[in-house]
């Protein structure tokens, strides 16, 4: 189903909660553009850009990269997709980043994936990634058709440097200290004006209600760890 107006969403959750996996499914169903801060940083590292080389050690150690660097990177990249509906994955991750985003775009909805840390640690040890596309696999949950190879391109899959148990623990700490306050920021933020209903807008509100019911269902699945 394609959306009839520009719809802007953010997906949040601890590292390894399934943001990339769920995003893939949402963008396929609703025709949104997907922008992942982690994929963008890894692409810079792979291309050995100045920024990628500078940020690599931060990422490998499980620390967040500086707010001004990531905000500039993401907001610049968003200019390429701002005529479409989008889903942001991994940004914002601090209150300062959320404020930078708010200065330019208003977000329609925030999806939060709530997954216990023990489950996350298990998932990350069996995660495999196709680096060029960001496609994510899991040996237990979502294995590739041929072990070690991407389903679409047949290229080799890799494991991430920051998926070691020690680094995952650091990433979860960074999430608690720096990213959880962003959820509170969005909870407290004033809700947007409700739509004024006209015949034309009735269709729009039905569409929006449909999307919200799907997203609520996804959230519920994750809350129940399915
Ligand atoms: P990023 O790439 O964004 O990493 P992350 O937030 O730690 O999240 P992950 O990509 O690890 O996991 P995910 O939630 O997408 O889960 P996935 O779908 O893969 O960021 C990496 C680093 O970049 C950060 O640590 C930081 O240094 C830096 N960075 C990025 N953005 C930044 C920002 N805004 N500010 C500052 N620094 C930033 O799923 C995980 C596994 O579980 C997979 O194997 C998957 O197949 C499996 N799985 C998914 N769903 C299920 C399910 N329902 N059941 C069973 N298994 C499942």
From TrEMBL:
Assembly description: Monomer.
Enzyme class, first EC level, given as a word: transferase
GO cellular component, one term: mitochondrial matrix
Organism: Salmo trutta
EC number of this enzyme: 2.7.4.10
PROSITE patterns linked to this entry: ADENYLATE_KINASE
Highest taxon of source: Eukaryota
Region (LID): 126-163
Pfam hit, one: ADK
Region (NMPbind): 36-65
Assigned protein family: Belongs to the adenylate kinase family. AK3 subfamily.
Protein name (record): GTP:AMP phosphotransferase AK3, mitochondrial
Subcellular localization, as worded in the UniProt entry: Mitochondrion matrix
Entry keyword annotation includes Mitochondrion: yes
SUPFAM superfamilies noted in UniProt: P-loop containing nucleoside triphosphate hydrolases
Domain observations: Consists of three domains, a large central CORE domain and two small peripheral domains, NMPbind and LID, which undergo movements during catalysis. The LID domain closes over the site of phosphoryl transfer upon GTP binding. Assembling and dissambling the active center during each catalytic cycle provides an effective means to prevent GTP hydrolysis.
Keyword entries, A-Z: GTP-binding, Kinase, Mitochondrion, Nucleotide-binding, Transferase
Ranges in coiled-coil conformation: none
Alphabetical list of HAMAP family matching this protein: Adenylate_kinase_Adk, Adenylate_kinase_AK3
Residues covered by the Adenylate kinase active site lid domain: 127-162
Binding site for GTP: 16-21, 127, 136-137
Function: Involved in maintaining the homeostasis of cellular nucleotides by catalyzing the interconversion of nucleoside phosphates. Has GTP:AMP phosphotransferase and ITP:AMP phosphotransferase activities.
Residues that, per the record, bind AMP: 37, 42, 63-65, 90-93, 97, 160, 171
GO biological process, one term: ITP metabolic process
Catalytic activity entry: GTP + AMP = GDP + ADP; a ribonucleoside 5'-triphosphate + AMP = a ribonucleoside 5'-diphosphate + ADP
Lineage summary: Eukaryota, Metazoa, Chordata, Craniata, Vertebrata
Gene Ontology terms for molecular function: AMP kinase activity; ATP binding; GTP binding; nucleoside triphosphate adenylate kinase activity
């Amino acid at each position: 189903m394609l959306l009839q107006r520009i719809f802007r969403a953010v997906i949040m959750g601890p590292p390894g909660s399934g943001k990339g996996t769920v995003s893939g499914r949402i963008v396929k169903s609703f025709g949104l553009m997907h922008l992942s801060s982690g994929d963008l940083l890894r692409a810079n590292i792979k291309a050995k850009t100045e920024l990628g080389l500078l940020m690599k050690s931060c990422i490998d150690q499980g620390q967040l990269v500086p707010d001004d660097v990531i905000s500039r990177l993401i907001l610049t990249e968003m200019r390429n997709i701002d005529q479409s509906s989008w889903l942001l994955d991994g940004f914002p991750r601090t209150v300062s980043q959320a404020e930078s985003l708010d200065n330019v775009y208003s977000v329609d909805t925030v999806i939060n994936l709530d997954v216990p840390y023990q489950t996350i640690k298990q998932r990350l040890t069996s995660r495999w990634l196709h680096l060029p596309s960001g496609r994510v696999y899991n040996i237990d949950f979502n294995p590739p058709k041929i072990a070690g190879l991407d389903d679409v391109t047949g290229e080799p899959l890799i494991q991430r440097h920051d998926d070691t148990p020690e680094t995952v623990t650091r990433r979860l700490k960074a999430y608690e200290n720096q990213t959880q306050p962003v959820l509170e920021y969005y909870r407290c933020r004033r809700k947007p004006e409700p739509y004024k209903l006209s015949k034309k807008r009735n269709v729009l509100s039905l569409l929006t209600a449909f999307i919200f019911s799907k997203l609520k269902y996804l959230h519920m699945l994750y809350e129940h760890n399915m």
